[in-house]
Amino acid sequence: MDLATLWFGIIAFLFVGYFVLDGFDFGVGMSLPFLGGFGKRADDVTRRQIINTIGPVWDLNETWLIVAGACLFASFPEWYASLFSGFYLPLLLILLTLIMRGVSFEYRHQRDGLKWKQGFDRMIMIGSAVPAFLWGVAFANIVQGVALDERRVYIGTVFDLLNPYALLGGLVTLLLFFTHGVTFIALKTDGQLRTDARRLAFRAGIVTLVVAAVFLVWTVTAHFSLAVLVLAALAAVSLVLSIVSNLRGREGWAFGFGAATTLFAVVMLFAALFPNVMPSTIDPAYSLTIANASSSQYTLTIMSWTALVALPLVLLYQGWTYWVFRKRVTRASIEGAASEGEAAHA
């Protein structure tokens, strides 16, 4: 295996990590109105309990995107340039909504006013749903191919990116992340919220299974290979096992199989893409491939040694963080914190 192919695999690994980890963050954010109530019926204690499930880890999960983008820029500059110029508006919208979501997490608790909190809750929901949908749209377009000319510049429009296959891909990621996030809430909470989350995860999982099945069949048909077929089957089986585990009250297994579903689905997309990194629908000769889009051998060598040292440390630190914050977020702890805050202001 040459270094360019190795770094194609590393980029895939980084995006798998991002979608598995930030994916359930998106799901948690989108679940606020479904589990925390709407409008005047919103339960602030429940919403705080939901948000606190990802409070210690959401920003750490998001750094996987930064690392993936930086590695993509350094290892495949041609791919990076074509992707970020052609998909400029969708990626800008993702960035803005991610910023909006991050600001909301930090500022929501700064005031006790109902309108203040509900305003930031809406921003969390939007900042979770929009990226969850647009990431699916973006990756489906990359796999399907886009209008790259002989200069390997995207000459289509934003509306060309909103084709049926891409929109279906966006719907799949939206539903998959939602189900993944609700399963995480069931894993991390207690009482009525845990029960409600399990029930919602089952319902969302059934809808996700149907929509994802259509997308998987479409992808396998259009980009058939043994690897794509096997990975699609593994993704489907993992999703079914996640739904069954959740139904049996095994939240840990349900979350693990949900993570495996995302893993196999993303790897399937990269397998369908290989050896291209951005196919051209105008002429296959204009496509960006691993060979013609990669950096020099010297650059890839330096990056490989850096990754060999840094990546294990990052994984160990992230694993340690999840171990430290492994306990459930109980309703009693939220109510106790609220009582202490009221006493401090008395």
From TrEMBL:
A Pfam family it matches: Cyt_bd_oxida_II
The organism's taxonomic lineage, starting at the top: Bacteria, Bacillati, Actinomycetota, Actinomycetes, Micrococcales
Residue ranges of the TM segments: 6-36, 82-103, 124-147, 167-188, 200-218, 224-245, 252-274, 302-325
Domain of life where this protein originates: Bacteria
Keyword entries, A-Z: Cell membrane, Electron transport, Heme, Iron, Membrane, Metal-binding, Transmembrane, Transmembrane helix, Transport
Keyword Cytoplasm: no
Record-linked InterPro entries: Cyt-d_oxidase_su2
Protein name (Swiss-Prot/TrEMBL): Cytochrome d ubiquinol oxidase subunit II
Main location: membrane
Compartment annotation: Cell membrane
Organism of provenance: Microbacterium profundi
Membrane topology recorded in Swiss-Prot or TrEMBL: Multi-pass membrane protein
Family the UniProt entry places it in: Belongs to the cytochrome ubiquinol oxidase subunit 2 family.
